[in-house]
Amino acid sequence: MRAGLQLSQSGYKTAIISKVFPTRSHTVSAQGGITCAIASDDPDDDWRWHMYDTVKGSDYIGDQEAIEYMCSEGPQAVYELEHMGLPFSRTEEGRIYQRPFGGQSKNYGKGGQAARTCAAADRTGHAMLHTLYQGNLRNNTVFFNEWFATDLVKNADGAVVGIVAICIETGETVLVESKATVLATGGGGRIYASTTNAHINTGDGIGMVLRAGFPVQDMEMWQFHPTGIYGAGSLVTEGCRGEGGYLINKDGERFMERYAPNAKDLAGRDVVARSMVMEILEGRGCGDKGDHVKLKLDHLGEEVLNRKLPGILELSRTFAHVDPVKEPIPVVPTCHYMMGGIPTNIHGQALTQDGSGEDRVIPGLFAVGETACVSVHGANRLGGNSLLDLIVFGRAAGKFLESHLRESHEVASASDSDLQQPVDRLQRLNDSSSGEPAHLLRKELQQIMQNIFGVFRTGDKMKEGIDKLGAMRTRVENVRLEDRSNTFNTSRIEALELQNLFEVAESTAVAAEGRNESRGAHARDDYKDRDDDNWLCHSLYFPQDKRVGKRDVNFKPKTVDTFEPAVRSY
Amino acid sequence: MLVSIYRYNPDTDSKPSMQEVDVQIPEDTDLMVLDVLEMAKEKDPTISYRRSCREGVCGSDGMNINGSNGLACITPLSEAVGKSNKLVLRPLPGLPVIRDLVVDMAIFYKQYEKIKPYLVNDEPPPAIERLQSPEDRDKLDGLYECILCACCSTACPSYWWNPDKFVGPAGLLQAYRFLADSRDTSTADRLAELDDPFSVFRCRGIMNCVAVCPKGLNPTRAIGHIRSMLLSQGT
Description:
The complex is a heterodimer. By secondary structure, chain A is of the alpha+beta class.
């Protein structure tokens, strides 16, 4: 919506196609905030410190040029949101309130904990999504709400010239032609059985791109958020720990002091999640099954909790039957964020590689947000950087398109044969008679991913997992559609989403098995160390031959010195 | 447990009907109504409804649950059925049914758009954010959290009667959210556009909106504030 807003403001005919009404997208669930150096909490704050934290957090495979762009442009992008009306919480001086988040430091890691995450209580994503929708309403962006994009359409030259989309309400299927197609389809966290992600997070953009034959990057990198509510999966913001909450094991011990003596509970999310799993595996987990730990907040007092974390009180009471004012919340690391995605440059232009391994722009195709991999998160995303990523790069893609579209680019329209593949896919689904129902296949897929491609991974198990997934492909393609009606047929949409989930899962599995090291969120029992000699690079998954290739990380920021890889400790 | 679900598919049905689906409810856990609905859909995949976040912030799965509007994903089954041991799910009342539990929300969104739900400030923006005191920001609490689920407006008899002319509780809550924002400079224009017999004054203070709001918000109070502003402006 940020890209759409930019283009509508410039007078371009812009359509936003969304499978749900725009304020129902998963950004609405983001809680803690948006990180950037607006120097409200600390007048000396510097975007370069934020950049250092982000590079370190990424375990050094975030692209430094992109991180530089994000951190330096971030403040302006956040001010624009505020001017649009986003109801940020405030300091006594009237500025935007900033809270501490994990992995944040001052003075390049030497100045202690920073408070750099701009917040609207613990409902920042909700506030942002509504503000963006409101901004688009004001600028008369055209919305196709509850339209589901099924596939990209490529012309004879390989340029993306539009999409095929289904109107969910009527079942009508149309070709939407466009000079530029910007994918902002979010993550695919529903590949895991336990996830903080909404039902709709099915990686549709990843599915579309892989079916079109383009590669995806760093798909092995999945963030497991330390604090998903045990049993329910709902997210409890890292802001809880930023405000002073901490994790305890069954003995009541604040165990993060052992794993990360300096940052403690505010170490990188990958570090905290692994520490929690270690506690559980070593028999110090809570509950009858000893399979979770607890997040303690009660010492902060009711007044602070009501003011700063009202949404968390609500969620915890509803889903954990626990009142955080009185007792700790049961939590467990839960799939949360897809660091990988469609490789892009800082303008949002989607990339592929040519025969000699050089980057090539895919004409007509752009990607921003979680579905993209620009890559600012590398192997581990810092809290508060996802809202920043989507707002900065949505804006960047919009700005780039403003000037790009002015130059006349004549592209050949799609011919009937270019439409054959998307149309055949829909027809095959409609004609299905024997296959299995979508919900059973989805559950099987989620179990494979949960059991084999979770917080800790091993090569042998992953090979088994890839075989199991390989055996599923035909079954997923033959999924049975039991409802063929046209009006608001959610079964058809779920079957198409399952096929997208499958593409996300398979690319994740192959990329994870391919990366023979442990880095960031990718932790292998059989390769416990980071291997900078061989793997200080992105992985690229090519769908045609299910091959994992490599792509260079950008170490060339434009205005600051390179941050050289170093041992990552908190 | 028998779950009774409103069914209507215009492609195949001449009229709506209630379908009873037998769902095995596991002991020892308190499911949410949405979980039960998902289980029903596994038995009969033709059941249609909206859902997304499953944690009460996206506003997709507003529906009528045992006679009261609410979000399926944060309504515990035990609370919904009480002692009746029966779950009855119907679409939100007062809006056209597209299919099953899916209603056409176009007129609801139109009322939202009518109140100009965006900040208007004619001053050129400063180089940083516009300043706002914590006290002024506090005035937005209880207003900005609306998730547009339509539980309130579709529980309101005044809205049922005049959905085209009465803005309704959801729209008016947002109208007040911008009237109350110290950064917004279009108070006079906003009030002028609401100053007619229908937009605001069709509210009869029935407070169904307050009773059903899944976020615990109070549209009636916001409407009261708008009324006061309109009346004091007129004198």
